[in-house]
Amino acid sequence: MATASSVLSPGAVVDPEPGPRKEPEWQENLNIHLICPDCKEDPPNLADEHASGDTVCDSCGLVLSGRVVDTRSEWRTFSNDDQSNDDPSRVGDAANPLLNGSQLQTSISFGDGSARAKELHRAQNKATHDKSTKTLLAAYKQIGALCDGYSMPHTVADTAKHLYKLTDDAKAFKGKSTDALIAGCIFIACRQNGVPRTFREVFELTKVSKKEIGKTFKALEKFFAAQNKEKRGTAVSAGGMVLSNDSYTTTTSTNPGELCIRFCSILGLDQRCTMISQDLANQMATAGALAGRSPLSAAAACIYMASSLMGQPRTPKQISEAAKVSDSTIRNAYKYLYQEKEKLINPEWLTKGGDMSRLPVAS
After folding, report:
1. Which of 37, 121, 344, 358 is the least crowded, having the fewest Cβ atoms under 10 Å away?
2. Nearest residue to 184 (alpha-carbon basis) of 221, 155, 147
3. What is the spatial distance between Cα 157 and Cα 146, in angstroms, rounded to a whole number?
4. Which element (helix H / strand E) includes 118?
5. What is the sign, positive or negative, of the torsion defined by CA atoms of 306, 266, 327, 315?
6. Which residues of 38-76 are buried (b: 16+ CB within 10 A; e: fewer)?
């Protein structure tokens, strides 16, 4: 570089300042290639066996490298083997079994919001408009909102949607209220997944009368049982079998023990008291102490006795708020349990902190 004191001749160029040295970027050396050390053929006669991940010399069979990465496309197509000439290669979104149709059509969005884009979007919606699918989507949205509002498991919502899809495909309930069908499907789905709800709770959830829910429930039970019997007969005649996921199991009356778990959680009872109230409900059903009583009143009476036995007493009024049963009904049911206390109370419960002297005397 020229200094300030040096004089440049006409046409001379000042040398640039030396900057930091950059590391050269890596580039593949194409002059280096793999050859067989035995044959030493050039060009080499090599083949990649993707099934085993090896690079093999075709001339002598020597394995030159292993664990070769397969850079080909990962999907395979069986369109030639398919009788319907469909291409089931794994391209695109998976089909939703709860909706009708192939669901593989292209959707046109609004884009930039111009008049042309809106016109294309409107025309595409008219061309692919399916009223049945629109009705199903509205029903599924309502089922999901109702189940989320009561904090039910996702399996309940999925089962209810599947049951509603079966009724929609069969067209067996034409003229029936959609709200009543949804209420009936949710009621059955709760029982199928071991989290039963009473008619009163489903009424509070869906605003469908208990009488209408009961009628719809019986009609749905009869329809699903007949459909399952027909499906099973068809599968057996064809030499196959019905999977457990595809079969329908007829629900029985609500077990008081299943209700005890939820009610004890609402009342803030610990796990030990919850398990004892559940066991008491099962022994009560076996002994027939409250035969003919509703599962709600039986579960409430068992919780009343178990909570008092384990030193965590809850008043009938507190239990009535959780179980939606009057406190007088709980006291009347408790009278029958108190008379059979020697048979119902397991001696093992007394070793876990239970004391029969804590039981309130039935008046």
Report:
1. 37
2. 221
3. 9
4. helix 115-127
5. positive
6. eeeeeebebebeeeeeebbbeeeeeebeeeeeeeeeeee
Q: Give pLDDT tens digits for 136-161.
A: 888 999 999 999 888 888 999 999 99
**What does each C-alpha distance from 245 to 96, 142, 166, 249, 332 come to in angstroms?**
17, 24, 14, 10, 42
With a cut of 50, which residues of the chain have pLDDT below it? 1-2, 82
**C-alpha dihedral sign at 143, 144, 149, 154:** positive
- Rounded CA separation 225/249 (Å): 8
* 316-345 pLDDT tens trace: 999 999 888 888 999 998 998 888 888 888
Identity of the amino acid at 169: D
- Interatomic CA distance for residues 139 and 224, integer angstroms: 19
What is the pLDDT at residue 156? 92
The reported pTM is: 0.62
DSSP per-residue codes, 47-65: EEETTTTEEEETTT--EEE
Residue 288 has a pLDDT of: 79
- Say if CB 181 and CB 216 are below 8 A apart: yes
- For the chain, what's the residue count? 363
| Cα distance between residue 160 and residue 253, in whole Å | 18
Alpha helix segments (H runs only) across 24-106: none
DSSP letters for 205-257 = HH---HHHHHHHHHHHHHHHHHHHHHHHHHHHHTT----TTT--PPP-SPPHH
Amino acid identity of residue 238, one-letter, is A
Which residues fall within 8 angstroms of residue 160, CB to CB, at 6 or more apart? 143, 147, 182, 185, 186, 188, 189
What whole-number distance in Å separates Cα of residue 341 and Cα of residue 337? 6
